[in-house]
Design goal:
The complex is a heterodimer of chains A (about 280) and B (about 170). Chain A is built from three helices and 14 strands. Chain A has one domain. Chain A is about 30% helix and about 30% strand. Chain B has about 170 residues and is mainly alpha-helical. Chain B is about 80% helix and about 0% strand. Chain B has seven helices and no strands. Classes of the chains: A alpha+beta (about 280), B mainly alpha (about 170).
Chain lengths: ~280, ~170
Protein backbone atom coordinates (compact mmCIF):
# COMPACT_ATOMS: atom_id res chain seq x y z
CA UNK A 1 0.00 0.00 0.00
CA UNK A 2 2.78 2.41 0.97
CA UNK A 3 4.65 1.48 -2.20
CA UNK A 4 1.57 2.32 -4.27
CA UNK A 5 1.19 5.68 -2.50
CA UNK A 6 4.83 6.39 -3.27
CA UNK A 7 5.15 5.05 -6.79
CA UNK A 8 1.80 6.00 -8.33
CA UNK A 9 2.31 9.78 -8.14
CA UNK A 10 5.98 9.37 -9.04
CA UNK A 11 5.05 7.38 -12.15
CA UNK A 12 2.37 9.91 -13.09
CA UNK A 13 4.88 12.73 -12.73
CA UNK A 14 7.62 11.00 -14.72
CA UNK A 15 5.18 10.04 -17.51
CA UNK A 16 3.40 13.37 -17.79
CA UNK A 17 6.30 15.62 -16.83
CA UNK A 18 5.06 19.12 -16.10
CA UNK A 19 1.89 18.76 -18.16
CA UNK A 20 -0.87 19.33 -15.67
CA UNK A 21 -4.03 17.26 -15.96
CA UNK A 22 -7.47 18.83 -16.08
CA UNK A 23 -9.26 18.96 -12.70
CA UNK A 24 -11.43 15.91 -11.97
CA UNK A 25 -14.46 15.79 -9.66
CA UNK A 26 -12.32 15.35 -6.55
CA UNK A 27 -10.05 18.26 -7.51
CA UNK A 28 -13.09 20.42 -8.14
CA UNK A 29 -14.64 19.44 -4.80
CA UNK A 30 -11.45 20.35 -2.90
CA UNK A 31 -11.06 23.59 -4.85
CA UNK A 32 -14.71 24.42 -4.14
CA UNK A 33 -13.82 24.29 -0.43
CA UNK A 34 -10.36 25.88 -0.50
CA UNK A 35 -11.01 28.79 -2.88
CA UNK A 36 -13.84 30.41 -0.88
CA UNK A 37 -11.70 29.82 2.22
CA UNK A 38 -8.87 31.77 0.60
CA UNK A 39 -11.27 34.51 -0.41
CA UNK A 40 -12.72 34.69 3.09
CA UNK A 41 -9.25 34.85 4.65
CA UNK A 42 -8.22 37.51 2.19
CA UNK A 43 -11.23 39.66 3.09
CA UNK A 44 -10.70 38.99 6.83
CA UNK A 45 -7.06 40.07 6.59
CA UNK A 46 -8.06 43.21 4.67
CA UNK A 47 -10.58 44.07 7.38
CA UNK A 48 -8.08 43.35 10.17
CA UNK A 49 -5.42 45.48 8.47
CA UNK A 50 -7.89 48.35 8.08
CA UNK A 51 -8.86 47.99 11.75
CA UNK A 52 -5.23 47.97 12.84
CA UNK A 53 -4.46 51.04 10.75
CA UNK A 54 -7.44 52.78 12.32
CA UNK A 55 -6.29 51.75 15.80
CA UNK A 56 -2.72 52.86 15.13
CA UNK A 57 -3.95 56.21 13.86
CA UNK A 58 -5.96 56.77 17.03
CA UNK A 59 -3.29 55.86 19.60
CA UNK A 60 -1.32 59.11 19.39
CA UNK A 61 -4.20 61.45 20.19
CA UNK A 62 -5.37 59.89 23.44
CA UNK A 63 -4.57 62.89 25.65
CA UNK A 64 -6.02 65.61 23.48
CA UNK A 65 -9.16 67.51 24.20
CA UNK A 66 -12.09 65.11 24.08
CA UNK A 67 -14.29 67.13 21.79
CA UNK A 68 -11.49 68.06 19.43
CA UNK A 69 -10.17 64.55 19.62
CA UNK A 70 -13.49 63.07 18.64
CA UNK A 71 -13.88 65.55 15.84
CA UNK A 72 -10.31 64.99 14.77
CA UNK A 73 -10.78 61.24 14.78
CA UNK A 74 -13.92 61.49 12.76
CA UNK A 75 -12.26 63.77 10.24
CA UNK A 76 -9.20 61.56 10.05
CA UNK A 77 -11.30 58.50 9.57
CA UNK A 78 -13.25 60.30 6.87
CA UNK A 79 -10.05 61.49 5.18
CA UNK A 80 -8.65 57.97 5.35
CA UNK A 81 -11.85 56.57 3.92
CA UNK A 82 -11.93 59.21 1.20
CA UNK A 83 -8.26 58.63 0.38
CA UNK A 84 -8.88 54.91 0.18
CA UNK A 85 -12.03 55.49 -1.87
CA UNK A 86 -10.19 57.94 -4.15
CA UNK A 87 -7.33 55.49 -4.71
CA UNK A 88 -9.79 52.68 -5.40
CA UNK A 89 -11.87 54.97 -7.62
CA UNK A 90 -8.80 55.92 -9.66
CA UNK A 91 -7.79 52.29 -10.01
CA UNK A 92 -11.28 51.29 -11.08
CA UNK A 93 -11.60 54.28 -13.44
CA UNK A 94 -8.35 53.33 -15.08
CA UNK A 95 -9.56 49.77 -15.33
CA UNK A 96 -12.90 50.91 -16.72
CA UNK A 97 -11.20 53.12 -19.26
CA UNK A 98 -8.93 50.29 -20.16
CA UNK A 99 -11.85 47.88 -20.45
CA UNK A 100 -13.65 50.30 -22.79
CA UNK A 101 -10.61 50.79 -24.98
CA UNK A 102 -8.77 47.57 -24.30
CA UNK A 103 -8.20 44.47 -26.36
CA UNK A 104 -11.53 42.63 -26.63
CA UNK A 105 -14.01 42.28 -23.81
CA UNK A 106 -12.59 41.95 -20.33
CA UNK A 107 -13.83 41.18 -16.85
CA UNK A 108 -12.27 42.44 -13.63
CA UNK A 109 -11.13 39.93 -11.03
CA UNK A 110 -9.74 40.10 -7.53
CA UNK A 111 -6.60 38.23 -6.46
CA UNK A 112 -7.56 35.92 -3.59
CA UNK A 113 -4.33 34.01 -3.05
CA UNK A 114 -0.89 33.00 -4.19
CA UNK A 115 0.27 29.52 -5.09
CA UNK A 116 1.72 27.90 -1.94
CA UNK A 117 4.63 26.44 -3.91
CA UNK A 118 6.92 28.55 -6.06
CA UNK A 119 6.56 26.42 -9.17
CA UNK A 120 4.67 27.57 -11.12
CA UNK A 121 4.57 31.19 -9.95
CA UNK A 122 0.83 31.71 -10.01
CA UNK A 123 -2.07 33.60 -8.46
CA UNK A 124 -5.66 32.60 -7.81
CA UNK A 125 -8.43 34.98 -8.90
CA UNK A 126 -12.13 35.00 -8.11
CA UNK A 127 -13.37 34.46 -11.66
CA UNK A 128 -13.81 31.10 -13.32
CA UNK A 129 -15.83 28.97 -15.70
CA UNK A 130 -19.08 30.50 -14.53
CA UNK A 131 -17.80 33.92 -15.67
CA UNK A 132 -16.74 32.69 -19.10
CA UNK A 133 -13.05 32.36 -18.26
CA UNK A 134 -11.12 29.65 -20.08
CA UNK A 135 -7.61 28.27 -20.06
CA UNK A 136 -5.11 30.33 -22.07
CA UNK A 137 -6.85 33.69 -21.70
CA UNK A 138 -4.49 36.61 -21.05
CA UNK A 139 -4.64 38.43 -17.73
CA UNK A 140 -3.65 42.10 -17.63
CA UNK A 141 -3.82 45.30 -15.62
CA UNK A 142 -3.85 48.83 -17.05
CA UNK A 143 -0.09 48.85 -16.37
CA UNK A 144 0.64 45.79 -18.49
CA UNK A 145 0.62 42.02 -18.81
CA UNK A 146 0.26 39.84 -15.70
CA UNK A 147 0.10 36.31 -17.16
CA UNK A 148 -2.39 33.85 -18.58
CA UNK A 149 -5.09 31.55 -17.23
CA UNK A 150 -3.65 28.15 -16.49
CA UNK A 151 -6.49 26.31 -14.79
CA UNK A 152 -10.16 27.08 -14.39
CA UNK A 153 -12.52 25.60 -11.86
CA UNK A 154 -16.02 26.84 -10.96
CA UNK A 155 -15.76 30.45 -9.86
CA UNK A 156 -11.96 30.55 -9.56
CA UNK A 157 -8.94 30.41 -11.86
CA UNK A 158 -5.18 30.11 -11.53
CA UNK A 159 -3.03 32.59 -13.41
CA UNK A 160 0.57 31.70 -14.34
CA UNK A 161 2.65 34.87 -14.05
CA UNK A 162 4.90 36.20 -16.79
CA UNK A 163 7.83 35.83 -14.36
CA UNK A 164 7.36 32.04 -14.20
CA UNK A 165 10.38 30.34 -15.83
CA UNK A 166 8.13 28.47 -18.27
CA UNK A 167 6.34 31.58 -19.48
CA UNK A 168 7.21 32.75 -23.02
CA UNK A 169 5.74 35.83 -24.67
CA UNK A 170 6.20 37.09 -28.20
CA UNK A 171 7.33 40.72 -27.84
CA UNK A 172 8.72 43.64 -29.77
CA UNK A 173 10.41 46.91 -28.96
CA UNK A 174 7.94 49.75 -29.23
CA UNK A 175 10.63 52.11 -30.59
CA UNK A 176 12.46 49.96 -33.13
CA UNK A 177 9.79 47.24 -33.63
CA UNK A 178 12.51 44.61 -33.12
CA UNK A 179 10.95 41.23 -32.36
CA UNK A 180 12.04 38.83 -29.60
CA UNK A 181 10.78 36.46 -26.91
CA UNK A 182 10.38 37.41 -23.25
CA UNK A 183 10.75 34.49 -20.87
CA UNK A 184 10.19 34.47 -17.12
CA UNK A 185 13.21 34.79 -14.87
CA UNK A 186 11.76 32.97 -11.88
CA UNK A 187 11.57 34.77 -8.61
CA UNK A 188 13.96 37.59 -9.30
CA UNK A 189 11.16 39.73 -10.69
CA UNK A 190 12.75 40.11 -14.11
CA UNK A 191 12.15 38.73 -17.60
CA UNK A 192 14.81 37.59 -20.04
CA UNK A 193 14.71 38.89 -23.59
CA UNK A 194 15.70 36.06 -25.93
CA UNK A 195 15.86 35.32 -29.66
CA UNK A 196 16.60 38.92 -30.58
CA UNK A 197 18.98 38.98 -33.53
CA UNK A 198 22.29 40.75 -32.97
CA UNK A 199 21.43 43.09 -35.81
CA UNK A 200 18.21 44.27 -34.15
CA UNK A 201 18.17 47.79 -32.72
CA UNK A 202 17.65 47.46 -28.94
CA UNK A 203 18.58 50.01 -26.31
CA UNK A 204 18.38 50.19 -22.54
CA UNK A 205 15.13 51.84 -21.52
CA UNK A 206 13.24 50.56 -24.57
CA UNK A 207 9.61 49.81 -23.85
CA UNK A 208 8.75 46.19 -24.63
CA UNK A 209 5.24 45.39 -25.79
CA UNK A 210 3.52 42.17 -26.88
CA UNK A 211 3.83 41.35 -30.57
CA UNK A 212 0.73 39.16 -30.76
CA UNK A 213 2.69 36.37 -32.45
CA UNK A 214 2.37 33.87 -29.60
CA UNK A 215 -1.37 33.38 -30.09
CA UNK A 216 -2.11 34.20 -26.44
CA UNK A 217 -1.56 37.90 -25.88
CA UNK A 218 -3.02 40.55 -28.18
CA UNK A 219 -0.46 42.91 -29.72
CA UNK A 220 0.48 46.18 -28.04
CA UNK A 221 0.22 45.30 -24.35
CA UNK A 222 3.03 46.66 -22.19
CA UNK A 223 5.38 43.98 -20.86
CA UNK A 224 8.17 46.07 -19.33
CA UNK A 225 11.36 48.02 -19.97
CA UNK A 226 14.83 46.86 -20.94
CA UNK A 227 17.33 47.44 -18.14
CA UNK A 228 20.52 45.75 -19.34
CA UNK A 229 21.60 44.43 -22.73
CA UNK A 230 24.21 41.70 -23.19
CA UNK A 231 25.89 41.50 -26.59
CA UNK A 232 28.53 38.80 -26.73
CA UNK A 233 31.28 38.86 -29.30
CA UNK A 234 29.88 35.71 -30.88
CA UNK A 235 26.50 34.11 -31.63
CA UNK A 236 23.43 35.13 -33.58
CA UNK A 237 21.45 36.65 -30.76
CA UNK A 238 21.67 39.35 -28.14
CA UNK A 239 20.07 39.08 -24.71
CA UNK A 240 18.56 41.59 -22.32
CA UNK A 241 16.84 41.87 -18.96
CA UNK A 242 13.36 43.36 -18.69
CA UNK A 243 11.76 44.83 -15.59
CA UNK A 244 8.02 43.99 -15.76
CA UNK A 245 5.67 46.97 -15.98
CA UNK A 246 3.38 45.35 -13.41
CA UNK A 247 4.48 44.98 -9.79
CA UNK A 248 3.75 41.28 -9.62
CA UNK A 249 4.12 41.06 -5.83
CA UNK A 250 1.49 43.72 -5.16
CA UNK A 251 -1.34 42.97 -7.57
CA UNK A 252 -4.81 43.25 -6.08
CA UNK A 253 -7.10 43.44 -9.09
CA UNK A 254 -6.65 42.20 -12.64
CA UNK A 255 -8.57 42.02 -15.91
CA UNK A 256 -9.17 38.79 -17.80
CA UNK A 257 -9.26 39.34 -21.58
CA UNK A 258 -12.11 37.13 -22.76
CA UNK A 259 -11.60 37.35 -26.53
CA UNK A 260 -8.04 38.56 -26.92
CA UNK A 261 -7.80 38.38 -30.69
CA UNK A 262 -10.69 40.66 -31.59
CA UNK A 263 -8.79 43.95 -31.46
CA UNK A 264 -5.36 45.21 -30.52
CA UNK A 265 -4.51 46.74 -27.17
CA UNK A 266 -4.96 50.51 -26.70
CA UNK A 267 -1.97 52.68 -27.60
CA UNK A 268 0.88 53.03 -25.17
CA UNK A 269 2.24 56.45 -24.28
CA UNK A 270 5.14 57.04 -21.92
CA UNK A 271 5.22 53.46 -20.72
CA UNK A 272 1.55 53.27 -19.77
CA UNK A 273 -1.51 52.13 -21.62
CA UNK A 274 -3.73 55.02 -22.65
CA UNK A 275 -7.24 54.52 -21.35
CA UNK A 276 -9.44 57.05 -23.09
CA UNK A 277 -12.16 57.03 -20.47
CA UNK A 278 -9.85 58.54 -17.90
CA UNK A 279 -7.20 60.71 -19.48
CA UNK B 1 -10.23 10.72 12.62
CA UNK B 2 -6.66 11.92 12.89
CA UNK B 3 -6.38 11.63 9.12
CA UNK B 4 -9.33 13.98 8.65
CA UNK B 5 -8.01 16.45 11.22
CA UNK B 6 -4.60 16.41 9.50
CA UNK B 7 -6.23 16.99 6.14
CA UNK B 8 -8.41 19.84 7.35
CA UNK B 9 -5.49 21.43 9.18
CA UNK B 10 -3.36 21.22 6.02
CA UNK B 11 -6.13 22.74 3.92
CA UNK B 12 -6.56 25.58 6.39
CA UNK B 13 -2.81 26.22 6.70
CA UNK B 14 -2.30 26.16 2.93
CA UNK B 15 -5.14 28.63 2.48
CA UNK B 16 -3.68 30.90 5.16
CA UNK B 17 -0.25 30.58 3.59
CA UNK B 18 -1.47 31.48 0.12
CA UNK B 19 -3.06 34.65 1.49
CA UNK B 20 -0.08 35.44 3.76
CA UNK B 21 2.35 35.10 0.85
CA UNK B 22 0.25 37.60 -1.09
CA UNK B 23 0.37 40.09 1.79
CA UNK B 24 4.05 39.57 2.56
CA UNK B 25 4.89 40.05 -1.12
CA UNK B 26 7.17 36.98 -1.15
CA UNK B 27 8.30 35.98 -4.62
CA UNK B 28 9.82 32.49 -4.55
CA UNK B 29 10.15 31.89 -0.80
CA UNK B 30 7.26 29.94 0.68
CA UNK B 31 6.37 28.54 4.09
CA UNK B 32 6.32 24.77 3.71
CA UNK B 33 3.68 24.09 6.34
CA UNK B 34 2.84 20.78 4.74
CA UNK B 35 6.43 19.59 5.18
CA UNK B 36 6.23 20.44 8.87
CA UNK B 37 3.08 18.32 9.13
CA UNK B 38 4.65 15.46 7.17
CA UNK B 39 7.76 15.63 9.38
CA UNK B 40 5.54 15.36 12.45
CA UNK B 41 3.73 12.38 10.94
CA UNK B 42 7.13 10.80 10.31
CA UNK B 43 7.88 11.05 14.01
CA UNK B 44 4.55 10.04 15.50
CA UNK B 45 2.26 8.27 13.03
CA UNK B 46 2.18 4.58 12.11
CA UNK B 47 3.53 3.59 8.69
CA UNK B 48 0.23 3.17 6.84
CA UNK B 49 -1.62 6.00 8.53
CA UNK B 50 1.32 8.36 8.07
CA UNK B 51 1.87 7.40 4.44
CA UNK B 52 -1.80 7.87 3.63
CA UNK B 53 -2.00 11.19 5.46
CA UNK B 54 1.22 12.39 3.80
CA UNK B 55 -0.10 11.38 0.38
CA UNK B 56 -3.29 13.36 1.04
CA UNK B 57 -1.36 16.40 2.25
CA UNK B 58 0.86 16.18 -0.86
CA UNK B 59 -2.22 15.91 -3.05
CA UNK B 60 -3.58 19.10 -1.51
CA UNK B 61 -0.30 20.89 -2.20
CA UNK B 62 -0.27 19.52 -5.74
CA UNK B 63 -3.79 20.76 -6.26
CA UNK B 64 -3.17 24.20 -4.83
CA UNK B 65 -0.02 24.61 -6.89
CA UNK B 66 -2.29 25.11 -9.91
CA UNK B 67 -0.44 22.39 -11.75
CA UNK B 68 -1.25 18.96 -10.29
CA UNK B 69 1.39 16.59 -11.62
CA UNK B 70 1.79 14.16 -8.72
CA UNK B 71 5.22 15.51 -7.78
CA UNK B 72 4.24 16.85 -4.38
CA UNK B 73 2.18 13.75 -3.51
CA UNK B 74 5.25 11.63 -4.23
CA UNK B 75 7.59 13.96 -2.35
CA UNK B 76 5.28 14.05 0.69
CA UNK B 77 5.24 10.24 1.01
CA UNK B 78 8.98 10.09 0.34
CA UNK B 79 9.70 12.78 2.94
CA UNK B 80 7.46 10.95 5.42
CA UNK B 81 9.43 7.72 4.95
CA UNK B 82 12.77 9.51 5.32
CA UNK B 83 11.53 11.35 8.43
CA UNK B 84 10.29 8.08 9.87
CA UNK B 85 13.72 6.58 9.31
CA UNK B 86 15.49 9.66 10.71
CA UNK B 87 13.12 9.63 13.70
CA UNK B 88 14.63 6.34 14.84
CA UNK B 89 18.08 7.95 14.90
CA UNK B 90 17.34 11.28 16.59
CA UNK B 91 15.33 12.23 19.64
CA UNK B 92 12.82 14.94 18.81
CA UNK B 93 10.78 16.03 21.82
CA UNK B 94 10.98 19.79 22.22
CA UNK B 95 9.56 22.42 19.90
CA UNK B 96 13.02 23.66 18.98
CA UNK B 97 14.30 20.23 18.04
CA UNK B 98 11.15 19.69 15.98
CA UNK B 99 11.73 23.03 14.22
CA UNK B 100 15.25 21.91 13.30
CA UNK B 101 13.96 18.52 12.21
CA UNK B 102 11.27 20.11 10.01
CA UNK B 103 13.82 22.55 8.57
CA UNK B 104 16.07 19.65 7.60
CA UNK B 105 13.07 17.85 6.07
CA UNK B 106 12.17 21.00 4.15
CA UNK B 107 15.71 21.30 2.84
CA UNK B 108 15.55 17.76 1.46
CA UNK B 109 12.02 18.27 0.14
CA UNK B 110 12.93 21.54 -1.61
CA UNK B 111 16.14 20.22 -3.16
CA UNK B 112 14.32 17.14 -4.45
CA UNK B 113 11.49 19.23 -5.84
CA UNK B 114 13.95 21.55 -7.65
CA UNK B 115 15.82 18.51 -8.98
CA UNK B 116 12.69 16.84 -10.36
CA UNK B 117 11.44 20.09 -11.87
CA UNK B 118 14.81 20.57 -13.52
CA UNK B 119 14.69 16.94 -14.72
CA UNK B 120 11.38 17.41 -16.51
CA UNK B 121 11.89 20.98 -17.65
CA UNK B 122 15.50 21.95 -18.21
CA UNK B 123 14.44 25.54 -18.62
CA UNK B 124 13.25 25.86 -15.03
CA UNK B 125 15.21 28.63 -13.31
CA UNK B 126 16.94 26.50 -10.69
CA UNK B 127 19.10 29.35 -9.39
CA UNK B 128 16.13 31.61 -8.79
CA UNK B 129 14.28 28.83 -6.98
CA UNK B 130 17.32 28.11 -4.83
CA UNK B 131 17.82 31.81 -4.11
CA UNK B 132 14.65 31.83 -2.02
CA UNK B 133 15.55 28.64 -0.18
CA UNK B 134 17.29 30.14 2.86
CA UNK B 135 14.36 32.40 3.76
CA UNK B 136 11.99 29.51 3.06
CA UNK B 137 13.86 27.26 5.51
CA UNK B 138 13.77 29.95 8.19
CA UNK B 139 10.05 30.55 7.70
CA UNK B 140 9.30 26.82 7.68
CA UNK B 141 11.33 26.31 10.88
CA UNK B 142 9.42 29.14 12.55
CA UNK B 143 6.11 27.72 11.35
CA UNK B 144 7.09 24.27 12.68
CA UNK B 145 7.91 25.80 16.07
CA UNK B 146 4.48 27.45 16.17
CA UNK B 147 2.68 24.32 14.95
CA UNK B 148 4.38 21.89 17.35
CA UNK B 149 2.04 22.43 20.33
CA UNK B 150 -1.02 22.12 18.09
CA UNK B 151 0.23 18.96 16.40
CA UNK B 152 1.15 17.53 19.81
CA UNK B 153 -2.30 18.26 21.09
CA UNK B 154 -3.91 16.53 18.10
CA UNK B 155 -1.58 13.57 18.55
CA UNK B 156 -2.28 13.32 22.28
CA UNK B 157 -6.01 13.47 21.61
CA UNK B 158 -5.65 10.56 19.25
CA UNK B 159 -3.62 8.54 21.76
CA UNK B 160 -6.10 9.10 24.57
CA UNK B 161 -9.07 8.10 22.44
CA UNK B 162 -7.26 4.97 21.35
CA UNK B 163 -6.39 4.02 24.93
CA UNK B 164 -10.02 4.47 25.87
CA UNK B 165 -11.14 2.26 23.06
CA UNK B 166 -8.75 -0.51 23.99
CA UNK B 167 -9.90 -0.56 27.56
Amino acid sequence: MVAVLLLYPFGAFMVNGRKARQPNWLDRAVLAISSPLQRGLSIALDTAADGWRGYAALRGVRDENTTLQGENQQLRAKVNQLEEARAENERLKRMLGYVQNGPGSQIPARVVGVNPVATPLSLRIDRGESDGVHRGMPVVTPDGVVGHIHRVSGGYSDVVLITDPNSKIGVRSQRSRARATASGGGGNQTLHLENALRTEDLEEGDLIITSGTDGVYPPGLVVGRITTIQRKSYGMFQAAEIIPAVDIARIEEVLVVLNPTTRPAPPVVDGRTVSGGVR
Amino acid sequence: MKFLVTLLLSLLLLSIESVAVKYLGLTVSRIDVTVAIVAFLGLRASLLEGAFSSFSVGYLLDLMSGQPTGLYSFLAVFTFLICRLAGTLVDVRSGLSFALFATAADLGHSLLSVFFLWLTSREAAVTSLLSGLFLQLLLTGAAALCLFPLLNRIDRGRDQSEVGLLR
